[in-house]
From TrEMBL:
<dbReference type="Pfam" id="PF05368">
    <property type="entry name" value="NmrA"/>
</dbReference>
<dbReference type="InterPro" id="IPR036291">
    <property type="entry name" value="NAD(P)-bd_dom_sf"/>
</dbReference>
<dbReference type="InterPro" id="IPR050608">
    <property type="entry name" value="NmrA-type/Isoflavone_red_sf"/>
</dbReference>
<keyword id="KW-0560">Oxidoreductase</keyword>
<feature type="domain" description="NmrA-like">
    <location>
        <begin position="2"/>
        <end position="260"/>
    </location>
</feature>
<keyword id="KW-0521">NADP</keyword>
<dbReference type="InterPro" id="IPR008030">
    <property type="entry name" value="NmrA-like"/>
</dbReference>
<dbReference type="InterPro" id="IPR045312">
    <property type="entry name" value="PCBER-like"/>
</dbReference>
<protein>
    <recommendedName>
        <fullName>NmrA-like domain-containing protein</fullName>
    </recommendedName>
</protein>
């Protein structure tokens, strides 16, 4: 029996990877890839929920060419009943919205409950951290979505991924990787030995494809388990593979905490400015990863997560070392390019 999956945010950074992962999984029905009567695995029919103003974008039009059904909805202006009608008949709804649109999911959760969705995946796919103010912007908003899910007794799976390889490498003196660089200015925190859970963002989709078909993950928190590396580990891999010596800045825990408090205060005064929000979220991530050291498998299990290494021992995630090979070969991609160009225009 086919599982019908609806992705909200399928044209974004994470949603695009999830879509790619579902397609690559092979459990995908489209006009060019029909179900064979001789195959017995469960199949997915995939649809993308998009805003009316996004219909004419090239990335949206490309969905149709891949056999993905486009479902149009304006979550802000439509009422819950209308959205529920659009969701009716789908088994799983996956949300992968932008950081600025987390609370838009509240109405989507209400509609999913009304439509009888069998599994709701809220927008997670981020570093491990507890609720309660550690990540006072993005994590707190995500937890409000979880609370609404539990209010409705809506079946769910929460998926978090650690930090992504694509935003975790230092720049090189030669400028060889500057085309894809989106890091923290080559800052090593304290002794550089805080371990962090890391994953190639492309593996988020490959693993999500397994998770949504797995009864063991229903009503659970799952973390995507790939590499666990310190900053010193990352620097060593980059230096060995590039043959370059990386110049590093250094920051103390106190300096990071002070930077976070300042960034939060500025953001509170300018809550609608995406640059201020991004700066505050980035500062909170640094504290979470390197001061509190929340983002590791041990803490994930403490918080009640189960790991994909235990669930899927046959799955071979891409390693950071292999990613660096791609990076040095000029084959990586800079993330959020459109968003950064927008913020630069806003500042001029």
């Amino acid at each position: 029996m086919a599982q019908k999956v609806l992705i909200h945010g399928a044209t974004g950074e994470t949603g695009g990877d999830i879509l790619d992962g579902l397609v690559a999984d092979g459990s995908f029905v489209s006009p060019s890839n029909p179900i064979s009567p001789h195959r017995t695995q469960s199949y997915q029919e995939i649809a993308a929920l998009v805003r009316p103003q996004s219909l004419q974008k090239l990335v949206t039009k490309s969905l149709k060419s891949r056999g993905v059904k486009v479902v149009v909805s304006d979550l802000v202006n439509q009422d819950v009943e209308e959205i529920a009608d659009l969701l009716a008949g789908y088994d799983t709804v996956i949300s992968a919205v932008a950081t600025t649109a987390q609370l838009d999911q509240l109405k989507l959760v209400d509609a999913a409950a009304k439509a009888g969705i069998k599994r709701f995946i809220p927008c997670g796919f981020t570093s491990i951290s507890p609720p309660g103010g550690v990540m006072s912007l993005i994590r707190t908003e995500k937890e409000k979505i979880h609370e609404r899910i539990w209010y409705h007794h809506l079946p769910y799976t929460i998926i978090d991924s650690g930090t992504w390889y694509q935003i975790s490498f230092p720049s090189l003196p030669s400028g060889k990787v500057s085309y894809a660089f989106m890091g923290d200015g080559n800052t090593i925190v304290a002794d550089g030995n805080a371990p962090n859970l890391m994953v190639d963002k492309r593996d988020i989709g490959r693993l999500t494809a397994r998770i949504i078909k797995d009864s063991r993950t229903l009503n659970k928190r799952v973390f995507l388990h790939a590499d666990v590396l310190t900053q010193n580990d990352i620097w060593a891999i980059m230096e060995r593979k590039s043959g370059e010596k990386i110049e590093a800045k250094h920051a103390t825990h106190d300096e990071l905490l002070a930077k976070m408090h300042t960034a939060r205060a500025v953001c509170m005064k300018n809550p609608s400015d995406p640059r201020m929000r991004f700066a505050a979220i980035s500062a909170e991530y640094m504290v979470c990863k390197y001061v509190r050291q929340d983002n590791n498998p041990q803490n994930a299990r403490y918080l009640g997560y189960i790991g994909t290494r235990e669930l899927y021992p046959d799955f071979e995630p891409n390693t950071f070392s292999a990613f660096v090979d791609e990076l040095l070969a000029g084959q990586a991609k800079k993330l959020y390019r459109d968003k950064f160009e927008f913020m630069q225009k806003k500042s001029t």
